[in-house]
TrEMBL record:
CDD domains: ENDO3c (cd00056). Its EC number is 3.2.2.31. Its cofactor is [4Fe-4S] cluster. It comes from Sulfurovum indicum. It is an enzyme of class 3 (hydrolase). It comes from the Bacteria. Residues 42-192 form the HhH-GPD domain. One of its GO terms (molecular function) is adenine/guanine mispair binding. This is Adenine DNA glycosylase. It catalyses: Hydrolyzes free adenine bases from 7,8-dihydro-8-oxoguanine:adenine mismatched double-stranded DNA, leaving an apurinic site. Belongs to the Nth/MutY family. GO terms for biological process: base-excision repair; mismatch repair. SUPFAM superfamilies: DNA-glycosylase, Nudix. Keywords: DNA damage, DNA repair, Glycosidase, Hydrolase, Iron, Iron-sulfur, Metal-binding.
Length: 330
């Protein structure tokens, strides 16, 4: 691809974005680095619609600044994140805010402007660092999320590219004079036109230079994988109409409240049903057992209304619904 072809493509991308781009998204209408950083983290593995409708504005209302976020207890942050999944994102947001507060030494904490410094912060990888640099600080760098990767694979006939090659192509194609609109446009083109299935190539501003337009669904090659299934026995400890929950300490769902997983339920338990939940890398199947205690045997007990104030996972929400359904039929 020649420099002239790249310049022509950049102009078409710019014109397309001016006409069709989703420039009314709130994180595209602000120059606040914290707001932009938050949106980038929330949008990892999560659709724009979900973030916009349920999480972005409530989170900013609760934690309007980096300092407010860093000063808040982690449990409050996790509660505001509840249902969004991938809770390490919330923990790293909180840890980053605390790190920046410490570095500010009494001044208002701010995100660094350079990619190398951004990557040093908890949970900020190469793409998030590039996105914050491009959108918050208008640096002439590309963004590399899933939609952009797909576009690059089709443009340059890449079936199984590695990240190094993708970044090389991304830097070659980026509009250094207009990185904000260019990167937003590339993400929008991938989200609305250059789709994984049945892409609308005739509507794409990159059609003329796209080498993969004759057979776009072959780029990149899809990796087939079988999602493993994990089974757990969940034992509900119930005393005086309250349920026992513990705060997890392991890496998975760390600091979220949840129900006890046991190897073998106690003899006096009653099987009340099963719940399933699919994560990115596995499917979880939970056999749920109720154990009614005559004396409190655990440390923490909560009513259902109290549990609603705790940060819990989606699978634990499903377990509570199963329990409520069970007792309503008794």
């Amino acid at each position: 691809m020649t420099d002239r072809e790249i310049s022509a493509a950049q102009l078409k991308i710019k014109e397309w974005y001016a006409r069709y781009g989703r420039d009314n998204l709130p994180w595209r209408m602000t120059d606040d680095p914290y707001h932009i950083y938050l949106s980038e983290v929330m949008l990892q593995q999560t659709q724009v619609k979900t973030v916009l409708e349920r999480y972005y504005f409530p989170f900013l209302k609760k934690f309007p600044t980096l300092k407010a976020l860093g000063d808040a207890p982690l449990d409050e942050v996790l509660k505001m994140w509840e249902g969004l999944g991938y809770y390490n994102r919330a923990r790293n947001l909180h840890k980053t805010a605390q790190t920046l507060i410490g570095q500010a030494q009494g001044a208002a904490p701010t995100l660094p402007t350079e990619i190398d410094e951004l990557i040093k912060l908890p949970g900020i990888g190469k793409n998030t660092a590039h996105a914050v640099a491009a959108f918050a600080f208008k640096q002439p760098v590309p963004v590399m999320e899933a939609n952009v990767k797909r576009i690059l694979c089709r443009l340059f006939l890449l079936k199984s590219p590695n990240d190094k090659h993708l970044w090389e192509y991304a830097y070659r194609l980026v509009d250094k004079n207009n990185p904000f609109d260019y990167n937003q446009a590339m993400m929008d083109i991938g989200a609305t036109i250059c789709l994984p299935k049945k892409p609308e190539c005739g509507e794409c501003p990159l059609e003329e230079i796209c080498n993969g337009k004759k057979d776009p669904e072959h780029y990149p090659v899809k990796k087939s994988r079988k999602v493993p299934v994990r089974e757990q026995n969940i034992q509900l400890h119930i005393y005086d109409d309250k349920l026992s929950l513990t705060q997890r300490t392991g890496k998975f769902l760390h600091r979220l409240w949840g129900f006890e997983s046991v190897e073998m339920p106690q003899c006096a338990t009653r099987h009340i049903g099963m719940v399933t939940h699919t994560y990115t890398h596995f499917k979880l199947v939970c056999n749920v057992f109720a154990y009614y205690e005559t004396e409190p045997e655990q440390e923490h007990y909560f009513s259902v209304s109290e549990i609603k104030k705790l940060a819990i996972s989606k699978v634990d929400e499903k377990i509570i619904k199963l329990y409520l359904h069970t007792i309503s039929g008794e």
